[in-house]
Amino acid sequence: MDRWRAALSTRLRSHDDVQLVMSPVQVLAPAFVEELAEAAGRQEWVVLIFDTYERTGPVLDVWLRDLTLTDRYGELPTNIIVVMAGQGQLDPRCWGEHMDLVATIPLDVFTETEARQFLASRHVTDERVVDVILQLSGRLPVLLSLLSESRPTSVDEIGDASGTAVERFLKWETDPARRTAARACALPQELNEDIYRAAVDPQASDLFGWLRGLSFVTDRGGRCHYHQVVRATMLRLLRTQSPVSWQQQHTQLARTFRTWQHQLRETDPERASERWWLDDQWREHRLQERYHLLCANPEGALPEALRDLLDAYDHGTATLRRWAHMLTQAGHDNGTSTLTNRGQQILTALEDTSAPGVAALTLLIRQDILDTDGRALAHTLRGRDHRNAGRYEQALNDYNAALALDPIRKRVRFGRGATYRLMGRYDDALTDFNRAIELDPDYAVALVRRGQTYRVMGRYGDALTDLDRAMELESNNLVAIGSRGQTYRLMGRYEDALTDFDRAIELDPGMLWAVGSRGETYRLMGRYEDALTDLDRAIELKPDMLWAMAERGETYRLMGRYEDALTDFNRAIELEPDMLWAMAERGETYRLMGRYEDALTDFDRAIELEPDMLWAMAERGETYRLMGRYEDALTDFNRAIELDADYALAIADRGETYRLMRQYDDALTDLDRAIQLDPDNAWEQYQKALVLGALGSADREECLGQALEVFTRESAGSGWDARQAKGNAFIVSCAMSRWESAHQLLNDFLQPCSGAGLLSDAVMDLRDLADAMPTIADQLILFQQRIEEARQGSGCAES
What we know:
Layout: H1 2-11, H2 15-22, H3 24-42, E1 46-50, H4 53-69, E2 80-84, H5 92-95, H6 112-121, H7 127-137, H8 141-148, H9 162-169, H10 176-184, H11 193-199, H12 208-212, E3 217-220, E4 223-226, H13 228-241, H14 243-267, H15 280-296, H16 298-315, H17 317-334, H18 337-349, H19 356-366, H20 372-388, H21 392-405, H22 410-422, H23 426-439, H24 444-456, H25 460-473, H26 478-490, H27 494-507, H28 512-524, H29 528-541, H30 546-558, H31 562-575, H32 580-592, H33 596-609, H34 614-626, H35 630-643, H36 648-660, H37 664-677, H38 682-695, H39 700-714, H40 720-735, H41 739-750, H42 756-772, H43 777-793
Parallel strand pairs: 1-2
Antiparallel strand pairs: 3-4
Helix pairs in contact: 2-3, 7-8, 9-13, 13-14, 14-15, 15-16, 15-17, 16-17, 16-20, 17-18, 18-19, 19-20, 20-21, 20-22, 21-22, 22-23, 23-24, 24-25, 24-26, 25-26, 26-27, 26-28, 27-28, 28-29, 28-30, 29-30, 30-31, 30-32, 31-32, 32-33, 32-34, 33-34, 34-35, 34-36, 35-36, 36-37, 36-38, 37-38, 38-39, 39-40, ...
């Protein structure tokens, strides 16, 4: 130490020399700023670049911060820019308060144009050589530099720079365990701590935090990913250095993902295999298992991977696309062009905007790369897609092909049965549904569809049996609950129907068809305000829901709100010009409004589209009758009865037409037949009484009495049907000349307002009665005046 002091004393001849040795930064930094200022005075810009800042930053951070952001060493000119180039972010502990003054510029790989320019600068211009280098390098500058150093002129001269590149990626890491772990973790497509531990040796199992901090690793929500170019380079090195280790490591990772699948299955052992495809976590484990198996043994793992493609598509097009990407990636990572090409072909097929799934399945079927089970499933899935798209014949072709490959596959039987049902071939549908349920008595979806088939066939008891059984198997099966509600509605068991619709809506408040069906049920019960509430809600949720729109129009019509009804019918027909039911209902609305020509236009169009539409035919006949065109009316009624000999409505309307034509014997024959078919229809009893009165029969009063008894009973309820019954009881009382009772019934009928439709009907019925019984015409005129005054003065008139 003495000699060292003596040496220093001879060399440090001034205080400044001592300061330079003891505090070099304090001495040199101000001089550095002065010289920078001189340079900045001569140039427009001066740029200071500090490269490899991930290594130098810990030493330079504080000094550089003070140099640039304070005047500790002097004030820097404003035309000086400082650039820190490194792999990581600036240390927030040092720079945190000043980050608003820092602009972050991420450096990506070269664009293709930039990469070609770089290679050209190194005299690498052969197009085949350039293409290979671009592929191998991923346009990463360091790899472009390495691969072009020897200036190759042919593909054979291109070396493999993977090892050198990986060394550069890990050049700052000296720990062998960490370097090995970093290379091993390139094998998984993504990492979390569990996958990390499965990929690395036990001695490196606690280094996940270190790995996440590497510059080429990004962390997204707990999932880590290697930079694509870095990972591709490491994979190429691992694959070429030791093919045996490559296969072993991928196989081990595949086993890990398979184990995790089994662990998930153990949490719900009763769950069907196909149902696990709905589980995101299980599906991801399955995907990664297939990826690693393909990397380890492409040829051996391909058949099962292709089979999985079908299950993936069964889950959805998006899942199939992910599986195709996996196939492509596995081929790329393993250097197997067959895998890459197959995956890319599927992705190309999925670009078909009209039917992507069908295009992909057709590709797999035509390539003849699936085993028997796979081909059967591919035809089944394509049949499903054709069925859902309304291509029923094509669907049948696929289902038949699937059955030829696998005659006892229940799903094929179900799919073909569902197709037959949509085609209206109900007996064929039942045959397939029966076979599917025979193969699996607990096949709930087949039970539901068979129940729906029974329902449209009018076999309501059989429908309930199937739907009840389906709900025993799956108590919250929404389709089964709703279908049973629809069955109850068709049976007239409205309260039971409401119970089911309420339950379905409770389980899924956004279930539009259940909301709309409940609205329809309310309409049939005469609870029109409740019906409107549900139908309004359904249309609010789906403004183009045509069925609900037409159903609301029908509700408005029954309430006598004809203009509102026309608005809904017009909108529905505008969206679907051939919507027969809406068109016929609009015709009925026009008829009730007295717009007979408009009514005929709609009925004509509906019958043109469906010549055997009995209801429209009968309503057109009724319109002709109201217009006094009795022969035209008879033509329609005769045709309807010819098609359905027990069509009570058409028979009764024809009887009324005969009465107006004074063909009383024919009228009586028809009305008797209508009453036989529908004994509770009191209006037909009333019409028969008018015929008997014209014939001078003493049985007239008995018929009127029976009609009045039924109408009185029906008027005791509430809603539109009860108000209509009160109006009809009033008409019958007039026919019986029970004037005091008629006055009281009319008061009840008018309070509250019964709606424009019922009031219009009452006026027409009074006119008809006056024509049939001229002796009471004067009294009836007084009643007509009261009803007209009520229409105009109490808000019942249609606006």
